[in-house]
Amino acid sequence: VQLVESGGGLVQPGGSLRLSCAASGFTFNTYVMKWYRQAPGKERVWVATITGAGDSTNYAGSVKGRFTISRDNAINTMYLQMKSLKPEDSAVYYCNAWPRYWGQGTQVTVSS
């Protein structure tokens, strides 16, 4: 089983990034998928959820209206489109095939 995040980097406040999570080794479309993030010195917190079919999503209040979670089951990949980024969005972002599998994380830094 592998979950590999990509797309992180350094972006200015107000900018955008799209994270990807490429999955392999399990039946991707049967898993609810989630994004979490962890800032330095803080606990890992939930960001967003998408159902296996991609027909329902849910977001933490801090990102609602700015972030969009999506998935493409044809290529076993999940995404997180992030817009209007703020310095407080800086963290390592992790994808999760709930509840079992985790990726290694990708760093997002929002700074001028």
Describe the fold and architecture:
With 112 residues, the protein is mainly β. Helices cover 0% and strands 51% of the residues. The protein has no helices and 11 strands. The protein has strands at residues 2-6, 9-11, 17-24, 33-38, 45-50, 57-59, 67-72, 77-82, 91-97, 101-102, 106-110. The strands form 2 sheets. Strands 2, 4, 5, 6, 9, 10 and 11 form a 7-stranded mixed β-sheet that branches. A hairpin with a 4-residue loop joins strand 7 and strand 8 (77-82). The radius of gyration is 13 Å and the shape is globular.
Task: Provide a brief overview of the structure.
The chain is an all-beta fold and 112 residues long. It has strands spanning 2-6, 9-11, 17-24, 33-38, 45-50, 57-59, 67-72, 77-82, 91-97, 101-102, 106-110.
CA distance, first residue to last residue: 37 Å
What low-confidence regions span 5 or more consecutive residues with pLDDT below 50? Answer: none
- Radius of gyration of CA atoms, rounded to a whole number: 13 Å
> Structural class, please?
mainly beta
Residue share in helix: under 10%
The major beta sheet can be summarized as:
7 strands, mixed
Q: Let me know the average pLDDT.
A: 98
H/E element order: EEEEEEEEEEE
- The count of strands amounts to 11
**Fraction of residues in β-strands:** over 45%
Number of helices: 0
The gross shape turns out to be: globular
Layout: helices, strands, pairs:
Elements: E1 2-6, E2 9-11, E3 17-24, E4 33-38, E5 45-50, E6 57-59, E7 67-72, E8 77-82, E9 91-97, E10 101-102, E11 106-110
Parallel strand pairs: 2-11
Antiparallel strand pairs: 1-3, 3-8, 4-5, 4-9, 5-6, 7-8, 9-10, 9-11
